[in-house]
From TrEMBL, chain A:
Stored PANTHER family: 5-OXOPROLINASE RELATED, HYDANTOINASE_OXOPROLINASE
Example GO molecular function: hydrolase activity
Pfam families, A to Z: Hydant_A_N, Hydantoinase_A
SUPFAM superfamilies, alphabetized: Actin-like ATPase domain (SSF53067)
Coiled-coil segments: none
Organism name: Pseudonocardia hierapolitana
Domain Hydantoinase/oxoprolinase N-terminal positions: 2-171
Alphabetized InterPro entries for the sequence: ATPase_NBD, Hydant_A_N, Hydantoinase_A, Oxoprolinase-like
Ranges of residues in domain Hydantoinase A/oxoprolinase: 192-393
UniProt name for this protein: Hydantoinase/oxoprolinase-like protein
Highest taxon above the source species: Bacteria
Automatic annotation (TrEMBL), chain B:
Database matches in InterPro entries: S-Me-THD-like_C, S-Me-THD_C_sf, S-Me-THD_N, S-Me-THD_N_sf
S-Me-THD N-terminal domain segment(s): 15-171
S-Me-THD-like C-terminal domain segment(s): 174-366
SUPFAM superfamilies: CV3147-like
Pfam families referenced in this protein's UniProt entry, alphabetically: S-Me-THD_C (PF20906), S-Me-THD_N (PF06032)
Spans traversing the lipid bilayer: none
Taxonomic superkingdom: Bacteria
Lineage of producing organism: Bacteria, Bacillati, Actinomycetota, Actinomycetes, Pseudonocardiales
Name listed for the protein in its UniProt record: DUF917 domain-containing protein
Coiled coil: none
């Protein structure tokens, strides 16, 4: 048995699963300390389907806690950003494009040092060890509690970041965590460095949260290993989570999508997650969310780490309905959490999407007699508008002319029709309201490579093989069962204006969690 | 039009840069590099030194000494090994010293893409005005592909500087040789170097630069912002600013890329769709095939060449009007293709020899943005 938990901004959802079968599912309110909401949810699972804690083989948690901490600029550690690249890069120092309040929130200090590599692996300049020791001493003197190190072209050559980390630790002590950019982001110095600094600033909080999560699980007598889910729908163990909290940032939508896939049995599909205010649409290919290819701005900071490609539209259960006939509009404004006061079916005076769904008999919520007077033609027009708008978003997310099945999840999915014109039937699986917790519970383990390869004539196959093998190896190191690992994503883009047929290769491998062996390594 | 936008800017300050960079990406026609880093560098320089004065080529005195500045190399490298602003000024200073002249104006050799911004850094540092114009009116990949070449202005002596302090001054037999030699130096310098070349007099600048292109970039950027705020048709606004036409709207259904001699060559197929929100004006049926080599160079429909270099083929996100680079083109992207006229001088026999479709290896005569055959 496994337990999957999704800690969202409002609700903490939890499921108890046996393989792909859902034994129990609960929703509890998310609490400010996170852990007591989880405790309540675990109690709910026990009540719904009593189980011996020893039978639980793994607990998987998805949480928005870290991204919320960044957005709200709270619980962030005083952080130093050390960049290796002089004499290059000096004009745009670390955090150059950050919102001032976030630089303040992390008491951000920027240091520039010699080092870095050219695109082909030649050093820009040698490391200056004295310079690095001086910087580290200054960090220590100024109360820095976490360090982010970036080096130019470290995705091509990691050597300088690794060596600089050793030198900094010698001076500042082993208790100050060091985050290295090549382990976090891609080519694109400022974006990769930004993600690394964010990660560094969250590491104290990560240690506390991870301890709290582990304690709340242990408090229920569960001794199974604990995992956190990542942006790409794969898992990390708690040690990894302490080191890379930034990798949890987009796990919410990812878990919803992955859960929808398992519930519907569809590995390649569009997932429509309808909430109270917005509808999020993502696409799964081979069971994994398609990634966004452009830079993603988080709390006003430009980053380039892996995030799912999700298109949102302001349409949900609380959306305002206006007009009639072909002029009918639904959303983008919403009554939000005040649905239960303002919607007609709850005695309010605002016509919402929920009222329309009740009037059409799609769902029973509130007092249906309060919408009995609505003109059936207007109700039909509003539902038609919702169907058209959502179908348009789904169509935008399609990447080929091939039919793409649609799976609807989330409480608001009752607004959707049985089928979309041109897209076919809408799958509405059982347990759709807790798809995110299910997504966490069934997550797998992955490994990824994203590097620029200089491909000599006739050597393309060798470079491709090297990238694939490295991705597989990384997945196995991360805890995947080698027998189940496969390549799920491969992307090869030649880089313009560069000589030597430089090609950026991205490759991702994924496998099932090696559960039996993992049981012995609980953190 | 609300009339808030003046036709011609007289200064460029830090607040103008976002609009300028966005418009420059449009003129980049898929290439030229993402102006993001250049914008940040220019913003630093303009905040430090104050706004830079912008001088229209028509207002240049005959005796002005104009120094163009640009970045040469791979934008992919530049986003990793970000340039240092003092090297940008150093490239100008080294060439001025070699020539024994004092620069009076800085100019932009390429308005499309990242090279719209580097001259602003040099100008701010050196306290000089920038010419509101450039040597191409768009983006092209090689040094000799500028209108000053057609006017007989030599590319060299030119300077080339890296971030380590190395500076070279080249003197070459012709502008093609300058391209070849500077390219190999650039690679040795780590694939991103700052150059200053095509030094010209005010009279020569009036004759050979495309006037008003920095103003045009800024105007496009601002108009995109405004149209979006008003939920208007961003693509139509860009087409209008460029004096072009919407050639096609649809969904990217295939992208094939290959690297040859350092160029990202490729083909993208845009399948025509019947847009849900839009009328017949964009309902061009069938598929449009785009051929690109860094920049978009040719558009073909049903086997018929619809438009080619040197005219502009601009790919925009259908919803937002944001320019889409050839690197970012991907399956499923909803895009609209706009064809727009280039500077008329590019259509001279010399211009066509320099940047026409045959130079890039396509076996076709040039076709203009409105599908006219060359006379």
């Amino acid at each position: 048995m496994r337990i999957g938990i999704d800690v969202g901004g409002t609700n903490t959802d939890a499921v108890l699963m046996d393989g792909d079968r859902v034994l129990a599912a609960v929703k509890a309110a998310t609490t400010p300390d996170v852990t007591s909401g989880i405790v309540t949810a675990l109690d709910g699972l026990q009540a719904g389907h009593p189980f011996p804690p020893a039978d639980v083989q793994a607990v998987m948690i998805g949480t928005t806690h870290f991204i919320n901490a960044l957005v709200q600029a709270r619980d962030l550690a005083p952080t130093a950003a050390l960049r290796l690249g002089l004499p290059a890069t000096a004009s745009l120092p670390p955090m150059v494009d950050w919102p001032g309040r976030l630089v303040e929130a992390i008491a951000g200090r920027a240091y520039l040092a010699h080092g870095g590599h050219e695109f082909d692996g030649r050093p820009i300049s040698a490391l200056d060890e004295d310079e690095l020791r001086r910087h580290a001493a200054d960090m220590a003197a100024n109360g820095v509690r976490s360090v982010a190190i970036s080096s130019v072209f470290s995705p091509v050559n990691t050597e300088f970041e690794v060596r600089a980390a050793e030198l900094v630790a010698e001076v500042i002590g082993p208790d100050v965590p060091v985050s290295l950019s090549h382990e976090i982001g891609r080519v694109g110095l400022l974006e990769r460095e930004n993600a690394t600094i964010i990660n560094a600033a969250l590491r104290e909080l990560a240690a506390g949260i991870v301890d709290g999560l582990a304690a709340s699980i242990a408090g229920h007598g569960i001794t199974a290993p604990l995992y956190l889910s990542q942006n790409d729908g794969t898992l990390m163990d708690v040690e990894f989570a302490r080191r890379y909290p930034v990798a949890t940032f987009a796990s919410g939508p990812t878990n919803s999508m992955r859960g929808a896939a398992v519930l519907s049995g569809l590995g390649t599909c569009a997932v429509v997650d309808v909430g109270g205010t917005t509808t999020d649409v993502g696409v799964l290919t081979g069971g994994f969310p398609r990634e966004a290819t452009v830079e993603v701005s988080v709390a006003g900071i430009r980053t380039n780490f892996r995030m799912p490609d999700v298109l949102s539209v302001g349409l949900g259960g609380g959306s305002l309905v206006r007009g009639s006939g072909t002029d009918t509009t639904v959303g983008p404004d919403s009554v939000g959490y005040r649905l239960t006061e303002q919607a007609l079916v709850f005695g309010g005076n605002v016509l919402t999407a929920t009222d329309v769904a009740v009037a059409a008999g799609r769902v029973e919520i509130g007092d249906s007699s309060l919408v009995a007077g609505l003109d059936p033609a207007d109700v039909a027009a509003a539902l038609e508008r919702i169907a058209t708008d959502v179908a348009d978003v789904v169509d935008r997310m399609r990447i080929s002319a091939d039919p793409l099945p649609v799976v609807a999840v989330g409480g608001g999915s009752v607004l959707l029709p049985e089928s979309f014109p041109g897209l076919g039937a809408v799958h509405r699986p059982e347990h759709f309201a807790v798809a995110n917790a299910i997504g966490a519970a069934i997550a797998q383990v992955g490994g990824e490579v994203d590097r620029v390869f200089a491909i000599a004539p006739g050597r393309r196959d060798a470079a491709v093989d090297e990238a694939r093998q490295e991705a597989v190896d990384r997945a196995v190191v991360a805890g995947a069962d080698p027998a189940t690992v496969e390549i799920v994503d491969f992307d090869e883009v030649p880089i313009p204006y560069l000589p030597g047929n430089a090609t950026r290769i991205r490759c991702k491998a994924v496998g099932d969690l090696r559960i039996e062996q993992a049981a012995g390594r609980r953190a | 039009m609300t009339g808030v936008i003046t036709d011609r800017l007289t200064t460029i300050g830090a607040d103008d840069l976002e609009a300028l960079a966005r418009g420059a990406a449009v003129l980049g026609t898929g290439g030229g590099g993402d102006p993001y880093i250049g914008r940040l560098l220019a913003a630093q320089a303009l905040r430090e030194h104050g706004p830079v004065r912008l001088v229209h080529p028509a207002d240049l005195p005959d005796g002005a000494v104009v120094f163009p500045v640009a970045m040469m190399g791979a934008p992919t490298v530049m986003v990793e090994k970000t340039p240092s602003t003092e090297r940008i000024g150093a490239a100008v200073a080294a060439l001025a010293e070699f020539l024994g002249v004092t620069p009076t104006h800085i100019a932009c050799i390429e308005a499309g893409g990242v090279n719209s911004t580097f001259p602003l850094v040099a100008a701010a540092q050196l306290g000089l005005p920038v010419v509101d114009g450039d040597g191409m009116g768009r983006a092209f990949p090689e040094l000799q592909m500028v209108l000053p070449t057609l006017s007989g202005i030599p590319c060299t002596p030119m300077s080339i500087a890296d971030e380590k302090g190395n500076i070279g001054v080249l003197n070459t037999v012709d502008n093609h040789a300058a391209e070849a030699l500077a390219r190999s130096l650039t690679i040795t310098m780590g694939c991103a170097a700052i150059i200053s070349n095509y030094v010209m007099s005010g009279a020569q600048a009036r004759e050979s630069l495309v006037p008003g292109t920095l103003s045009l970039c800024t105007r496009i950027g601002r108009r995109l912002d405004r149209v979006r705020a008003e939920h208007g048709d961003a693509v139509a606004a860009v087409a209008d600013e460029l004096g072009g036409r919407v050639l096609h709207a649809g969904k990217v259904s295939d992208v094939a890329r290959r690297t040859l001699t350092g160029f990202a060559r490729g083909t993208a197929i845009i399948s025509g769709t019947a847009p849900m929100a839009d009328p017949a004006s964009r309902s061009a049926a069938g598929d449009l095939t785009l051929e690109f080599q860094n920049e978009h160079l040719m558009a073909v429909r049903h086997g018929i060449v619809e438009v080619t270099t040197p005219d502009l083929i601009v790919v925009l996100d259908t919803d937002t009007g944001e320019p889409v680079t050839t690197e970012a083109l991907r399956f499923g992207h909803r895009v609209t293709v706009v064809a727009a006229p280039t500077d008329e001088r590019w259509h001279s026999p010399g211009g066509i020899a320099l940047v026409g479709p045959r130079y890039f290896g396509y076996d076709t005569d040039p076709v203009r943005f409105d599908a006219r055959e060359r006379p």
